[in-house]
Design a protein that fits this description.
Elements: E1 5-9, H1 14-24, E2 29-34, H2 37-49, E3 53-58, H3 64-78, E4 83-86, E5 92-93, H4 101-129, E6 132-137, H5 140-143, H6 151-173, E7 179-186, H7 193-196, E8 198-199, H8 214-226, E9 231-234, H9 238-247, H10 249-263, H11 299-323
Parallel strand pairs: 1-2, 1-4, 2-3, 4-6, 5-8, 6-7, 7-9
Helix pairs in contact: 1-2, 1-8, 3-4, 4-6, 9-10, 9-11
Length: 330
Amino acid sequence: MRDAVVVVTGASSGIGRATALACAGRGARVVLAARSEAVLDEVARECRRRGGEGFAVPTDVADERAVRELAERAVDRFGRVDVWVNAAGVGILGRFDQVPSAELRRLLEVNVLGAVHGARAVLPVMRRQGRGVVIDVASLLGGVVVAPYLGGYAMSKAALVVFDDVLRQELALAGERRIQVCTLLPAAVDTPFFRQAGNRSGRAVRSLPPVATPERVARAVVRTTARPRPRVLVGPYARLLVTAHALARRPLGRAAARRTDRTYFGPAGDAPPSSGILYGASDAGAALRGGRHGGLRTTGRRTAAAGLALGTVLAASRRRARTSGPRCPG
């Protein structure tokens, strides 16, 4: 990473911020993009303290012209772009019929078109260089599993997974094999996401079980820049969850839906409607972590979740064994 030029969107908070600091700590020159100018300046100073360089460029990734300008300023400042990380993202909580269409549209513009704008802006740069890595931060939620009241967010992450698959195919057909496109699929991460998300459910969100820290995801980003792979699972039981979903999709989905509805959301009417940071910068709400102690207090939750997934897999395997056993000839 030393002297590599890395552009990180969503760099003011959560995974984007952790990624920027991790790259700077390895001597990278990091271009920081988000809507919160004051917070970006703070992150830039921290990048310099860690031994790298931080260059703040306030950017709304939903604005294609602004993203093109972000790429231009990165090249003007450093001469190239080695890695582009699309980590900007927003969320809305609520049933699909509770979420206003305008807010859903805004979410898709940030989460999906923001990454598309990033690819459009940086691919010409990487083609001139002859190489580069694009990393999109998606999610297991949408990429693999689903949960109620997060339909817009899951939809956007599923779209991002498909977009990356298609982009890889098109680059390969064009013979541009030295431009790599990588999709990160983290499990639940301890970021300010739920504090900043819009809420149209009428129900307060209780503490969701974090299973990874943003620093863990950032380390996965750094590893991926050195060894690009199409998809990267991040989290202590991510692979087990993927296997469980493949073998027992329906029972796992029912269990996830019940747990989300009964455990992670409060009673109806205990939360006022809010659009969160859909239209405004996070500013004072920006932070590295969400305060849910993903690195310290989740051992029991991790074990329970892993046990649930493993139990589902074993039950599905036993059912398959019973139904596929030897049959007597007719």
